[in-house]
Amino acid sequence: MKIVVVGTGYVGLVTGTCLADVGIDVICVDVDNKKIENLKNGILPIYEPGLEKLVHRNFEKGRLQFSTSLPESIGGADVAFIAVGTPPGEDGSADLKYVLAVAKEIGENMNDYGVIVTKSTVPVGTAKKVKSAIQDALRARSVNIEFDVASNPEFLKEGAAINDFMKPDRIVIGIETERARATLEKLYHPFTLNGHPVIFMDVPSAEMTKYAANSMLATKISFINDIANLCEIMGADVNLVRKGIGSDPRIGNKFIYPGIGYGGSCFPKDVKALIRTARENGHEMRILQSVEDVNEDQKSVLFNKVKARFGDLRGKHFAMWGLSFKPNTDDMREAPSVVIINQLLEAGATVSAYDPVAIDEAKHMIGDKITYAKDEFEALDNADALLVVTEWAEFRIPDFDDIKSKLKQPLIFDGRNIFERSQMKELGIEYHCIGVNTIV
Hints:
Layout: E1 2-6, H1 10-21, E2 25-29, H2 33-40, H3 51-61, E3 64-67, H4 70-73, E4 79-82, H5 97-109, E5 115-118, H6 126-141, E6 148-151, H7 161-166, E7 171-174, H8 178-188, E8 198-201, H9 203-234, H10 238-246, H11 267-280, H12 286-298, H13 301-310, E9 317-321, H14 336-346, E10 350-354, H15 359-366, E11 371-372, E12 385-388, H16 400-406, E13 411-414, H17 421-427, E14 430-432
Parallel strand pairs: 1-2, 1-4, 2-3, 4-5, 5-6, 7-8, 9-10, 9-12, 10-11, 12-13, 13-14
């Protein structure tokens, strides 16, 4: 089979590389010349554990190619994935201009039957627009080429994307014809040999499934954060509450870890888009609106704790561990760290931050408004307190004596509850976390 993947961002690059790794010929296409040249030279635009090795291996084998020309790549393709960005508009709606531009270009250049698959996260009804754009382009050429449009939403977790693609919980595919089904069954056959299910459905249902899944997970996060804030007020321990409810199989223990809010490229954008889609169709998603409101408020919880502890923050200096929205990624989109940093700076404080992989992305997003440390302990120098913002594994068992010696006072604000309260008390560290009374 020959596969074309348009877009070499997170979804496109992971999809193309993993398909190539099972022996399929893949061409990844992007309009960004520099990005394509970098990929040909083994330089990736994103950080994802294990991805660089797979790209190098499959590029050297010739199974994975990179191009800036869709017209030169689309000929003879069995499947073309559209995996370009769908940035949110100011009203929360998904911007489809890049998706539809790719659809138009495919219609202008395809020469044989193929299945055009929307891999980008798109609102319900997008496949119809893609189909229309392709048909319009074919009519303009005065040619009649059969094609199918399908929806194949991704369920990749940043930081675990390779394993998620290679060993998927499920593969969701929306199709209109049996021919499209047969083509995509053949494509995904290597990934279903161990019993991983392919769930075929109509196209609108597949498009909705992606939004519904992310919104459900976002709801769990905002719910436990709401409970955490109530626990602090009532004197309960959210960590124990979490264990108590997480043991219920109807609820489960995933996505009920209290913290400072969700971020990244999926949950914030998808929740907003689903709210907007519903509103455009005369329905208010009241629970999801609350989920979004709780999440926005939660990003300020750690700053509010700092403010309550110090009062005037002018002249104060804080160390921050973690910048990415979660571990094992350099993604800074909608990261709580950005909100917290801006709040501290506006209050007159200064910040020194460290992150294992997101420093370059942070410099691009935040600039020189803060200082960047070479490691987590350099960030502590002359700091009034430590703020833990991302739960990287290397932060979990630090040298607390070193922390105490470097900080002006033994004071930690833990936005991810990665330390044990009892240990902090034994060490004489003033410890503020989420959903539990403060230990001094």
